[in-house]
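Memo to structure team: turn this sequence into structure tokens by end of day. - J.P.
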Amino acid sequence: MTKDAFGTVVDALARRDLTAAELEERLARAGFEPKARADAVARAADAGYLDDGRVASERARHLAARDASDAAIRAELERRGVSDELAEAALAAVTPEAERAARLARRLGGGPRAARALVRKGFPDDLVERTPGLQIAE
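Reply from structure team:
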């Protein structure tokens, strides 16, 4: 039996939370027509199975707990097709970036090595310079 687009969406969402954009992409790869894709995604949203805001919030919370920078979190949410508005709302709800930077710097023992790690993880230079415990040689 050939599965319809909505069945494919339900199966995909049973495995993990996905955004509308990710579902659209999966359906396109599976060969569904644009109208069938749009209808299936709309139906899933109407049924409460699909919520980009929830996906964005959960992903941002997970990445922030791992001391990711705002830039890294924004990039991940953008890659998953989350709107700028939802991404900003998700970032506003997590631990402030300065606290995450300080926590990571402490975990890495401070100093220049920790400062370089913060920059590599996408923390802004001015924030790295202000982070306690990072005596950066000029």
